[in-house]
Amino acid sequence: MKKVLLFARDTGGANAIAPLYSALTKSNYKVEVYGKDFATRGFKKLGIVCRDITKSIGPVNEASLKKFLIGKKPFLVITGTNSEEFSEKYFWRVSASLGIPSIAILDHWTNLGIRFSKYTLRSIGKYKKNKALIFFPTKIFVMDETTSEEMAKEGIPSNLIEVMGQPYFEFLEKKSLQKVVNQRFGDSKVRLLFASEPLFDFFKGKAVLDKFLIYNELKITGLLLEIISKISISTRKDIEFIIKLHPKDKRRKYEPIKKQYLSKNLKIKIVRGSNSWEQITQSDAVISISSMLILEAIILKKPVICVQIGLRGDSPFLLVKKGLIKPVVNRLELEKELAAALNGTLGLSKFDYIRSPIENIVKYIENQKWQN
After folding, report:
1. How far apart are the C-alpha atoms of 104 and 81, rounded to whole Å?
2. What is the pLDDT of residues 11-22, one digit of tens each?
3. Which residue, among 135, 142, 141, 151, has the nearest Cα to 96 in the 3D structure?
4. How far apart are CA 209 and CA 122, in angstroms?
């Protein structure tokens, strides 16, 4: 039985490759899953048994991976991609040196080139001056033709790129069709899910953040709760506002806001972890600045609100640039959108994507010369 090794470092990467596990197993491959950092939790949330690679090899570098892959003898390595460190990049380079084919599955439309560069997102300035694209897998699977074209423009060889679709989108689509997932709690509360992002922490302070956005995630949350609080008082509607923390978020930063607006009719929860699709389907609307949970909500057929009040210039959020959603850019718009969300009249957004990516990928693997 041929062995396929799956690896990811962050949650997005885990989401993109985890749906392949069952399909590959059914196709008579022996599949082993390894993760690092956020991906280990991501795999487990998706019901996949995952081993922390650092417990097997210690620090992830080319030397430790070479020894690891020689011992494992996989016939194929499938990874996610990430722009913050080098684990996947080392997997591709070492696999190539050992004659093992590798596939990277793209989970996101942003920061495309730097995922294959000698730089990380922290050195984006250096990347823009000299892309230094030096890490490549055998093949890169992307979600659509537009992404393929954009990657080629970044300097990534077009012969490496294959349009397959995004496996996680198929996973979410199946979840949206499961009645058990869409059952509500059986009460009359209106639930709004706010997907947090550690913008302020990432940009290391207000001075840098203000170049892009006047509001940070704390100010946006405060504005949301100010408006929602007034609505709950005037309508006596029971509202639950759920702050879903990003894996890199700090819970304590939201505690003062929670304390300020918590009331009889407005319950505020701060949650970490849990399956995002369950939290989305149990909510009446999903709100964020630029979290990709907005896209998940659209696929799961939930209304969304993208709040970008105070944005300087054009929106950098890909879903806005693609025309999938229109951002809320002033308070009056936000009041109207929130009122509609709380009344159940907020419309749905549409997103067209390639269907059956899991089948597409498995068929591609089976038809390659790697099988010989």
Report:
1. 6
2. 999 999 999 999
3. 135
4. 14
Block residue for tokens 């069952």: 22
Phi, psi of 116 (to 5 degrees): -120, 15
pLDDT in tens, 83-139: 999 999 999 999 999 999 999 999 988 889 999 999 998 888 899 899 999 999 999
| Rg of the chain over all Cα atoms, to the nearest angstrom | 21
Helix (H) or strand (E) holding 203: none
Q: Are 88 and 8 in contact (CB under 8 A)?
A: yes
Residue 321's pLDDT is what?
82
* Cβ-Cβ contacts under 8 Å for 174 (sequence gap 6 or more): none
| DSSP per-residue string spanning 55-68 | HHHSS-SHHHHHHH
Report whether 80 contacts 13 (CB < 8 A): yes
**How many Cα atoms within 13 Å fall on the side-chain side of residue 79?**
29
Q: Which domains are assigned to the chain? A: 3-166+354-371 (3.40.50.2000), 174-343 (3.40.50.2000)
Q: How far apart are the C-alpha atoms of 10 and 162, rounded to whole Å?
A: 22
For residue 326, the SS3 value is coil
CA 12, chain centre distance (Å): 4
- The beta strand positions in 39-118, using DSSP E, are 51-52, 76-79, 102-105
Other Cβ atoms less than 10 A from the Cβ of 163: the count is 16
Please name the helix (run of DSSP H) or strand (run of DSSP E) that holds residue 170, with its range, or none: helix 167-176
Handedness of CA 313, 319, 322, 325 (dihedral sign): negative
Q: Outline where DSSP puts E strands in the chain.
A: 3-8, 30-35, 51-52, 76-79, 102-105, 139-142, 161-163, 190-195, 239-244, 266-271, 285-288, 304-306
Is 111:121 a contact under the CB 8 Å cutoff? yes
Would the pTM of this model clear 0.85, i.e. be above it?
yes
